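ok so for the tutorial part 2 we go from a plain amino acid sequence to predicted C-alpha cells. step 1 is just haveing the sequence, like this:
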Amino acid sequence: MNIRVAILGAGSTGRIVQEILETEKRQFKAECLIDMYDRRETWGKKIGSIEIAGGPDILGKLFKKGIHYVALALGEYGHLDKRIRAFELAEMSGFNLLSIISETAAVSRAAYIGSAVTILPNAVVMNGARIEQGTLIASGASVDHDCFIGEFATIGPGVHLGGCVRVETGAYLGIGSCVVNGRPDEPIIIGKGATVAAGAVVTKSVPAGKTVYGNPAKQKRKRRAGASKNKGKGKKK
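step 2 — the prediction. this is what the C-alpha cells look like for a chain of 237 residues:
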C-alpha cells in the first residue's frame, strides 16, 4: 500500500516534488498540494493528476483523513517565513516530515541529511556534508566535502559550494553562485539570513543578514546623501 503524502507548496518546487513522488518514489502517493501563500483563486485547481486542496488550515482535516506524511516544497526567495511556518504547522499537527531526495541526485552515504530536506534532480552532496532540517538543495547544485548547511537554508539551482563551507540558518544562495573552498579550521561562512546574489563568486565570509553581489562578491555600498554621481569626472565644457 502506498504512503499518502501532502505536498506543502503549490508553486514550481511543489510541482517538481510531485513529479519526483510520481515517477521515482513508487512507495509514496502524492495526494494533494497545499498552498501556503493564501492564493485562494488557485484552490481546487489541478496540477497534473492532483489538486491544490487549500491553504494551511486544511492540514488538520487531511490528517483525520489518513494522510500522515508531508513533503516540504517551498523555495521562493523572500518567503523563508512561509517555509518555517509550514514546517512548524506540520510538526504541531502530528505529520511525519519526509526528506525528498531525487534518484538522480548523488548523495554520499557519509553525508548527514536531516528531516524535511528536499534535494532536487542532479544535485550532488559529498562525503562529510551535513544538511540540517528544512533545507532545499535545488537542481544541479553541488555541496562539497565537509560543508555544513543550516536549517531552512536555500541552495539555488546550479550553486557550487567548495569544501569546508558553512551556510547558516535561513541563508539564500541564488542561481549559479559559488563559494570557494574554506579550510577545516577556517571555513568560509555564509551568515544567518544572508543572501548571495545570482552568479556571485564568494571568496570570503559573508556577515549575517547581508547581501553580496558580483565577482568577487561584495556588499552593495549605499551612496551617501548628496554624493555626486559624477564624482571624479571633469566638468562639461
